[in-house]
Amino acid sequence: MSDAEPVQIRPMTLADCDRVSEIRVLGWQFAYRGLMPQPFLDALSATADAERRRARFLKGDGSVLNLVATVDDEIIGWAALGPYRDDELRTEDAELYAIYLDPEHVGTGAGRALMREGLRQCATLGHERVYLWVVRGNARARRFYERAGFWADGAEEPYEVAGVAVPELRYVREVRGRTADRPQTRITRASALRTSPGRPRPLTAVSGSSPTRAPPPPPAPDEPGRRSVPV
Fold first, then answer.
1. Residue 115 domain boundaries
2. Average model confidence (pLDDT) for the chain?
3. According to the model, what pLDDT value does residue 89 have?
4. What are residue 129's DSSP bridge partners?
5. Calpha distance 226→209 (Å, rounded)
6. How far apart are CA 76 and CA 10, in angstroms?
7. CA dist 216 → 8, 208, 219 (Å)
């Protein structure tokens, strides 16, 4: 693929669920190879993911922003953002629940386009900060977030996948009228260990983010702490 594809960003629709789930599963398998148990990654099902995604989408309350990136009308990426989840509570800050690309389109600028539009909409909605969780060993995703203005704020916790603890770091970025070096207010969480319900939760996988704590408001992504795919 070229380094500068003509990427368009639009809201996700119900008809996009199959393709978004396919991208999500491909993203996990691409981003987390060597970081999560391979049998777990091999068993991920785009069909099962799409069924859950359609159900969440139909029950959605409008609090989660789902965006897709397209090239020539083909969906090549997906991102989801919404209220930051501090255990069962929503806060006034935002969270990037997931950002995934079809691995064939990593490095084409589609991930950056999704991130720009997501941050723009967060600012429009009045959020001052955006948080995300990323697997500590996912160097590609961490570089992507850092180039986008995020930094690790010191919070860290494990995400359990098939009995294996996968360390995750929390990143944050200001989106409204604050300087990037201003100290952040630490948000505590009641639980130090999230367990997987047998499926991945939101990662930041640019291919890289993580699973979630209390169930997010539908149709929030189904990832660990949060997770996204490599961009």
1. 8-195
2. 79
3. 60
4. 174
5. 5
6. 12
7. 27, 19, 8
pLDDT value for 51: 97
Tally of residues, the chain: 231
Beta strands in 62-203 (DSSP E): 65-71, 74-86, 89-101, 129-135, 151-161, 164-174, 194-195
30 pLDDT above the threshold of 90: yes
In a domain, 167, yes or no: yes
Residue 101 lies in a domain: yes
* Amino acid in the structure at residue 109: G
The Cα–Cα gap between 4 and 21 comes to: 24
Give CA–CA dist 193/225, Å, rounded. 10
Residue 14's Cβ-count burial label (10 Å; 0-12, 13-18, 19+) is: exposed
Task: Tell me the two tokens of residue 169.
Answer: 């770091």
Determine the Cα angle at 201 with ends 227 and 72, to 5°. Answer: 60
Average pLDDT over residues 100-122: 94
Residue appearing with tokens 């960003």? 9
Give the count of domains, the chain: 1
* pTM for this model (two decimals): 0.77
Burial class (CB in 10 A: 0-12, 13-18, 19+), 100: buried
In the block, residue with structure tokens 């990662």: 203
State phi, psi for 198 to the nearest 5 degrees.
90, 5
Domain CATH for 146: 3.40.630.30
CA 61 from chain centre, in angstroms, equals 19
Mean pLDDT of 180-189: 38
What residue spans of the chain are helical by DSSP H?
A: 17-31, 38-42, 46-59, 110-124, 139-147
On whether residue 45 sits in a domain, the answer given is yes
